[in-house]
Amino acid sequence: MSVNLIDVKDLDAIAIGAALYGTGGGGDPHIGKLLAQRAIRAHGPARLITLDELRDDDLIISVAMIGAPTVMLERLAETAPLVLALRQLEAKLGRKAAALFSGEVGGMNSVIPFSVAAELGLPLVDGDTMGRAFPKLDMTLCALHGIDAAPLALADEKGNGLVLDTVDVQSLEGMVRALTMEMGGSCYSALYSMTVAQARKSLVLGSISMTQRTGKALFEARERHLDPVAELVRVTDGHCLFKGKVIDLQRTIDGRWSKGLARITGLDEHRGEDVELLYQNEFLVARSEERILASTPDLICTVDMETGEPITAEQVRYGLRVAVLGLPCVPEWRTPAAIARVGPRAFGYDLDYRPVEQLTMDRR
Q1: How far apart are CA 228 and CA 217, in angstroms?
Q2: CA nearest 65: which of 135, 15, 131?
Q3: How far is residue 131's CA from residue 207's CA, in Å, rounded to a whole number?
Q4: Pairwise CA distance, residues 243 & 321, whole Å
Q5: pTM here?
Q6: Rounded to an integer, what distance in angstroms lies between the CA atom of residue 341 and that of residue 343?
Q7: Buried b vs exposed e over 245-282: b needs ≥16 C-beta within 10 Å?
Q8: Which among 110, 176, 193, 319 is least surrounded, fewest beta carbons within 10 Å?
Q9: No. of H helices and E strands in the chain?
Q10: Domains of the chain
């Protein structure tokens, strides 16, 4: 058996790792961390398990917040609506969940499920549906394997709740986004119910532990006075794409996602060059006038040049000195079917995807 008890202090490393893998989006994991830490103090540690601890026919369910990350910064998360959404979905399915899992390994939804797991005494599977954060319900490896997000339960902090069981994911996406706005711009959900047998083929396994290792590496780099940016590149097998100072920001919320652009002017070895980061909740394209540095589905992350602290799209501000990192996505996102779902053109950018390691090699 392999059971990892996650206590209050463990969440510090998980949350900072989740902030990095959120690629600028996914909501601020600090808020989710505080909620989970409160639940753990009240109910005891959460159990992080592998799928081997469950039977193949056991049911597992994801719990998550849905909405624009900018709104989530202003509305403190609660556990009760997550429990309500979970109970609604269980009632619809006529089965209880044997375990929970995270919808994404980046941002708030990496740590939010720990609060429900601790309060209900349910284990949390060490895995997620993406290996990063994406903004749409069908942008998951589960969807690529034919596992539907529906039926999906929604709830808010007022006690309102409902279950959606739609004919296709496009209908589900539209309804969820409309209801999210009606619920104040963000809400709570339970979704992607599946068996353990299905999860073995469709989840990114070990991803929560990955965030913990990343967070620990950053903490250790600070304690040992090492270059935190270099340590993040090492532990993630990533690339430092650019270092510079933020000189311009453009932000909008279109009712579904936070959208915008950050312009960075180069420092040190990148002096004399400017780079733009384009985002829709998550950073999706890093480009200069002459070339593409990285694009979705690879991960584009911004961190503080001095501390290595991950910076979300909402936290980027004029004058910040940042390093832009490019992390290879999990291999499953690089298939033609996956690129069609989450590549640059899926977000309206007229460019072809090329792996970040190839783009980095071209610049040398």
Answers
A1: 8
A2: 135
A3: 6
A4: 7
A5: 0.93
A6: 6
A7: ebeeeeeeeeebbbbbebbbbbbeebeeebbbbbbbbb
A8: 319
A9: 12, 18
A10: 3-207 (3.40.1610.10), 228-363 (2.40.390.10)
